Structure formats: C-alpha cells, structure tokens
Amino acid sequence: MIQISPSAAKEIQRLRSKQSNPDAFFRLCVQAGGCSGLFYDLKFDEATEQSDCLLDCNGIVVAIDADSLNYIQNLKLDYSEDLMGGGFRFSNPQAIATCGCGNSFALE
C-alpha cells in the first residue's frame, strides 16, 4: 500500500513525541488544493473514523481515510534534510505532475 522510509519513521516519531498526546497516530490524507490540484496532508489524530484504513508501516500506525486510499497506492514517504531544511518527500507513481514544493500533485 504505502512505504515509509526509516528516516521518515524517525521524524514522525520525533514529531509525535512533541504532541500533547504522544500516543496519537499519524494520519495521511489527500485533499483538493495546491498548485497541481491535490495535496498531501499529514497530521496527528486521536480518533479514527469507521472508514479509515489503519496500516503499520515501519513501526508507524498510519490512518488513511477511504477517499484518500485511491490516490496513494504505492506511495513512498521519505524524509531528508538539505540546505533549505528538512522535509517529507513524496514519491507517488500515480502522479502525472508535481509542483516544485513536492507536496502537490495531479492525477490523470
């Protein structure tokens, strides 16, 4: 379904430890917007919806809503740091276009 690299998992765990509830799970969803039409939304959540799919990816419990599942088949989530700072990097084989920031994408 999706893959989370060890560096992304480490960063997610670091960010989770700063949350008011360190047991919150990681939510990944796709929303309309951004410069290419769709964008990834990453956040921590304490409640699941009945339609959520819960996955264990590299030790991270990821909640994905049913609407987003179709957009992220075989998504790879990585984290890297460069001179501009650190950030999550998305590699989505379904995307036909991405914007310069890498968070927004388009599908056919």
TrEMBL record:
<dbReference type="InterPro" id="IPR031108">
    <property type="entry name" value="IscA_plant_cyanobact"/>
</dbReference>
<dbReference type="Pfam" id="PF01521">
    <property type="entry name" value="Fe-S_biosyn"/>
</dbReference>
<dbReference type="InterPro" id="IPR017870">
    <property type="entry name" value="FeS_cluster_insertion_CS"/>
</dbReference>
<protein>
    <submittedName>
        <fullName>Iron-sulfur cluster assembly accessory protein</fullName>
    </submittedName>
</protein>
<dbReference type="GO" id="GO:0051537">
    <property type="term" value="F:2 iron, 2 sulfur cluster binding"/>
</dbReference>
<feature type="domain" description="Core">
    <location>
        <begin position="2"/>
        <end position="103"/>
    </location>
</feature>
<dbReference type="InterPro" id="IPR016092">
    <property type="entry name" value="ATAP"/>
</dbReference>
<dbReference type="InterPro" id="IPR035903">
    <property type="entry name" value="HesB-like_dom_sf"/>
</dbReference>
<dbReference type="GO" id="GO:0016226">
    <property type="term" value="P:iron-sulfur cluster assembly"/>
</dbReference>
<dbReference type="InterPro" id="IPR000361">
    <property type="entry name" value="ATAP_core_dom"/>
</dbReference>
